[in-house]
Specification:
Layout: E1 9-14, E2 21-26, H1 39-50, E3 60-63
Antiparallel strand pairs: 1-2, 1-3
Length: 66
């Protein structure tokens, strides 16, 4: 049996000020499946999207560490 070689990605929103940020699982194009997030994670995602340019930088797709 072969293991899936599909890499796992995350969409990262980095803070413009203090080095903190948010990261959410996504596909290689940066699409986040909101239905698979917990309510708290979904709220954080929506907050992060709203704060781009104010508190957070544009999101970037990154390979998740193994």
């Amino acid at each position: 049996m072969r293991e899936s070689a599909t890499p796992v990605f995350r969409l990262c929103f980095r803070s413009l000020f203090d080095g903190r940020g948010f990261a959410f699982p996504c596909d290689e194009k940066g699409k986040v499946d909101l239905d698979r997030l917990s309510e708290q994670a979904r709220n954080n995602y929506l907050y992060a999207r709203a704060m781009v340019g104010r508190e957070l930088a544009l999101p970037a797709v990154e390979a998740s560490p193994a």
